[in-house]
Every structure is written in structure tokens, then in C-alpha cells.
Amino acid sequence: MKEFQEKNIGYVYILEVADIELPVCKIGMTTRTPYERCDEINCSSTGDFIWSVAHYIAVDDCRKLESLVHTKLAPLRQKKREFFNLSAEDANTALLSIFDKQSEIKRLTLEEIKPLSKEKTGTKKHKKRAFKCADFEYAELLQLFNSLLNVKGRPFGQLNKPYFGISDGHQGVQWNLSVSVDTGIAALGVNLEGLKYKDWPISKFILTELNKRRIFEIIEKIENPSSVFVRFSRDAWQVTSRPNIVEKYLGGQEFMCSALAEGKWEETLREALECLNEKNNFQGRTKQIVTLENPPRNGEQIRLMEVSPHLTIWSPLKLTGNIESHLRNKIEELQPFYDWVKGACE
Predict the structure, then answer these.
(1) pTM of the model
(2) Is pLDDT of 121 > 50?
(3) Of 76, 186, 280, 288, whose CB has the highest number of CB atoms within 10 Å?
(4) Alpha carbon distance 35, 115 (integer Å)
């Protein structure tokens, strides 16, 4: 009986479509973690959406609860699929209501379910920790990012891409947390993309900083400038995708704050400004000749494409010991940069 109960310990999860607001969600169960299951679905190349974890509940019988939820929400279910025609928020409200109206299934805390999940997922050995599956440590990192910044994080990227992670979802200056798929290295960053948002904030930032280069005032105030890096990228646009290009780094590289020279910073800012449409007061993309890193099967490797500048200020994040303390300290370290970039855009 105990063995049967343990086999049913797990989660009922709700997935939402990443980066697009659609009134559709996926409701399922897993005896591992919702993040592992989500990664598995995204890597399965089913041709559907890229999903992210919106909500979940840990229980002692996830199979029974999933069946109960699917039955109750059957009128909203897409034929022969675990997709439901309602938002993740509405689905979570329904899930909690259905759970509260029954008495057989018991809710578990993360502490109660964590040892079992680690035992089940810890038998596989990997040559390097690359977050191929989002385990408890990464799930904890996501939750801490949301709670410490008081946001509902918005995922970006995919596990088969160079980077994936989560941002605060704000239009304009953003906090983000990224993970390198190849190395498993995590970084907290302040991010400003070359997108319209409201009046092209990237344009305001560049013009303001060219007028008075305040970055050096910020660098002088931080305790360890060698741990913070500044990168201005050139994004090339192919409809909504951004293929990798040889001319990615504006200024030719990313810079350690402790080694950034004023002349090089001005040169990089002017190069970034050239990625915006001067005829439209720098509020829009311009076109430049770029070189695709991966030669296409059909078409030219060197192309004329729309481009825009992309600012990232980042610092590596320690993932051992007290992760909450590390993340909190990293937010405090980068807060002056966030305030500076945000202020320059207003």
C-alpha cells in the first residue's frame, strides 16, 4: 500500500504558452517535477507551442487529481489532448476549487515531496551540469527571482538554444536571469532590448549616455567592478527571430566594468546608435550588411537585414550554498545599474 501511495506522489501542473498570451493551457501530472516535465515536452518537437510552468500543486495522488480535473473541465478540453481552452490563471482557480471540494487527496509541501523527487531523478549521471532538465535547484532559482523582485517571471529561450531563462516581463528595462545550456552557468542581468516599447527607450538611453557618460560614476560606486560585465549587441532581425551573426558585439567585445575605457565606451555607444534609424530620430531599426554565423542551405550568408542595439549588464550567479542570499546580494550589486539605465530612458 505504501509503495502504491509513493508511486502516486507528484504534481498536477498547468503550463502556459511562453511569450504569447493565448487563452489555452496544458494540464497534466508528473511524478518528477513540473519543470522537468515541461522541459521534456518542449524538447519533444511536437510542433505545438513552447510551454512554461505557470502553476502546480504537490499532492499524494497526482493521478487521481489529474483525472478529477480533466473530468470537471471536459467541456473546455481540446479533443484527445491535454489542452484546455482557458487561461492558466483561470485553470489554476478551477484546479484549486476542485481540490478544495474533495477530501481524499492530500496536499504536500515541497519539503515533503522533495526527497522523493531527488531520489527518483538522482540516479542518472551527466557528464556536466547543463540544466538539460530543470531540477529543484533551478526551480528554486526561478521562484526566488519572482519573489525577491515581486514579479511573475516571463520565460525566454529554449533548452536547445544557447541560453534560456526568465525575465521580469516589463516593457523597457528588465531584470533577467539566464542560464547557459552548454556550461550551466547562471547570470543575473539588467537588460534593455532595441524594441519599440514606448518611444524606443534604447534610443533615449544611448543619446542620454552620449551626452554625459554616467556609467563611470556607477562603476566607481560598486564594490567589485571586475564581477560585472557590459555588453552591447547587434540584433539582426528575420521577421521575429534573431539569427546569430558574426558582427554580434558592438565595440567588438563585451567589457569587464573594471577595464572599460571612456573612449571605447563612446565608440560602442556611437556604433549602437548606428543600428537605429537616423531619419526617424533613431526611433526604429535600420538596415546593415551582416554575416550569418551558420551558412544557410539556401540563400546568401552575407545579407542586408534590419538591426537594432541590445544592452545587457550582467554578473555571474553562484549556485552553491545559500542561493537566496547569493541572488539577493547580486540584485543589490546590480541595482545601481538598473536605476541608471531606467533613469536614462525616462
Answers:
(1) 0.63
(2) no
(3) 186
(4) 16
